[in-house]
Specification:
The chain is built from 6 helices and 27 strands. The protein has 368 residues and is α+β, with helices and mostly antiparallel strands. Strands 11, 12, 13, 14, 18, 22, 24, 25, 26 and 27 form a 10-stranded antiparallel β-sheet that branches. It has an 8-stranded antiparallel β-sheet with strand order 6-2-3-4-17-16-15-10. A 5-stranded antiparallel β-sheet has the order 5-1-7-8-9. Strand 7 and strand 8 form a beta hairpin. The protein is elongated, with a radius of gyration of 26 Å.
C-alpha cells in the first residue's frame, strides 16, 4: 500500500477513531486501526469490539493494500508532524510515514487478516430525530446509567418503542430518568444502547440538524457524511421501570432551581464522606436542607426561601450527589417535586414541550 494525504486529514480521522480504543483488552487488535486503499478511496476502521467508527480520508492512492496502524502510536506521530503532505507506505511488517519536510517514521504492524469486519447494516429500523433533541435526551439520561459490570442490563439506556410512544429510560437502581415522546416510527421493541456509544454520540453528530439511528440486528448505526458510528446493543432484558414509579405522590414542593442547587452545594460542605447524606426538612411555610458531619463537628442549615409547601411535617434523606445531579439536569427553572413519605420514591416532574419527563430518586434513611 502506498498513499499520500495530509496531516489535517489524518488528525481529523484519528480524533474520531481513537475514541473506541481500549488500552487494556484481552484482544490486542482493539489497539489498532485498520486501513485499506483502493481505487474507491482510503477507509479507516477502529473498534473495541463493542463500539466502532469507520471513516474515509482524502488521499492519493498510488497502490492498493491494507494494514493495521497502532492507534496510540499513530496519534503521537500525527501530533508531531508538520502541516502539509504525508506519505504512507506499507512494506511487509513495516509502515513508513514521511512528512513533506522529510521527517520519517518506521513502525511495525501486525497481520490484518483477523481484524473484525464492520457489522452489516440491513437498515431494518430507522429512527429519525432532531439532533438537538437527541443530545438533550442523552444528557438527561447519562448520569443515571449504571456503571457496575455486575448489572449489564443497566449499563445502557433503554429505548423502548411502544405503539404510540417511545420511552428513553436510564436507571442504576437508586435513581431513574424516563423521557416519553410520541412514536412516529414503525419500530416496535426494546433496545438497550450502551453508555459508551451514547457518551460519544454527541460529538460524532456535530454539524447535523437531524440524526438517523438505524437499529439493525444486534447493532445500532448512525452516519455523519462519510463517517459511520456503530455499537452492539446490550443483549439483556431491561427491568420493568414503570413498576417502581409511584402512581400518586400526594405531597408537593415547588422551589427555584438555582436556589435549590446552591443550597445542595452548601450542604455538601458538611456531608460525611462515608454516607454522602443530606436531609430535606419540610414544614408548612418553612423548608430547609441540613447536613451533619459529627466526627468533624460540621453542620450546614440552608433554607429554601423560594419553596412553597403545605402538608404534614416530613424529613427526607438523600444521597447528596444524586440529588445535585437530578436538580442540575432539571430542564425548568421552577422545580416540581412530589413525594409520599420519607422512605418512598420521590419524583421530579419537569414540564417539557412534546415530551413527558420523570426523574425518580430513592431516599435514604436519615442518620444524623
Amino acid at each position: 500500500m502506498n498513499i499520500s494525504t495530509t496531516k489535517k486529514e489524518l488528525h481529523q480521522a484519528f480524533s474520531k477513531l481513537s475514541k473506541t480504543t481500549q488500552i487494556k483488552s484481552q484482544n490486542p487488535l482493539v489497539n489498532y486501526t485498520y486501513i485499506s486503499s483502493s481505487p474507491a478511496g482510503v477507509v479507516l476502521h477502529s473498534t473495541d469490539m463493542e463500539v466502532g467508527v469507520k471513516t474515509n480520508i482524502n488521499a492519493s492512492v498510488n497502490s492498493d493494500g491494507e494494514c493495521l496502524f497502532p492507534t496510540s502510536e499513530m496519534n503521537d506521530i500525527i501530533n508531531v508532524l508538520e502541516e502539509g503532505r504525508v506519505d504512507i507506505e506499507v512494506s511487509g511488517p513495516h509502515i513508513n510515514i514521511k512528512s513533506e519536510k522529510g521527517v520519517s517514521f518506521d513502525i511495525s504492524t501486525v497481520p490484518f487478516q483477523e481484524y473484525p469486519e464492520i457489522p452489516e447494516n440491513k437498515h431494518d429500523n430507522l429512527f429519525c430525530i432532531e439532533t438537538s433533541n437527541l443530545k438533550e435526551i442523552i444528557s438527561s439520561l447519562l448520569y443515571a446509567i449504571n456503571s457496575e459490570p455486575t448489572k449489564p442490563a443497566l449499563n445502557g439506556a433503554c429505548f423502548n418503542f411502544l405503539e404510540s410512544s417511545v420511552d428513553f429510560v436510564a436507571t442504576d437502581g437508586h435513581r431513574l430518568v424516563k423521557i416519553s415522546r410520541q412514536n412516529t416510527t414503525n419500530i416496535n421493541g426494546s433496545f438497550i444502547i450502551p453508555k459508551k456509544f451514547l457518551s460519544i454520540l454527541g460529538t460524532f453528530l456535530e454539524g447535523q440538524s437531524e440524526t438517523n439511528l438505524v437499529l439493525s440486528g444486534n447493532y445500532i448505526f448512525t452516519n455523519n457524511n462519510n463517517d459511520v458510528f456503530y455499537s452492539k446493543i446490550i443483549d439483556e432484558k431491561y427491568p420493568n421501570y414503570n413498576a417502581v414509579i409511584p402512581e400518586e405522590n400526594p405531597l408537593t414542593l415547588t422551589a427555584n432551581k438555582s436556589e435549590m442547587l446552591n443550597n445542595i452545594r452548601a450542604a455538601l460542605i458538611a456531608t460525611n464522606k462515608n454516607t454522602n447524606q443530606i436531609s430535606l426538612h419540610l414544614t408548612e411555610g418553612k423548608v430547609h436542607f441540613k447536613s451533619v458531619n459529627q466526627p468533624e463537628s460540621k453542620t450546614v442549615h440552608a433554607p429554601l426561601k423560594s419553596a412553597k409547601y403545605s402538608g404534614e411535617d416530613i424529613s427526607i434523606g438523600f444521597n447528596a450527589t444524586y440529588l445535585k445531579e437530578a436538580v442540575s439536569k432539571y430542564p425548568n427553572e421552577e422545580i416540581l417535586f412530589t413525594f409520599k413519605d420519607s422512605l418512598s420514591a420521590t419524583l421530579f416532574l419537569p414540564n417539557v414541550n412534546d415530551q413527558k419527563t420523570i426523574i425518580l430518586l430513592m431516599p435514604v434513611r436519615i442518620n444524623e
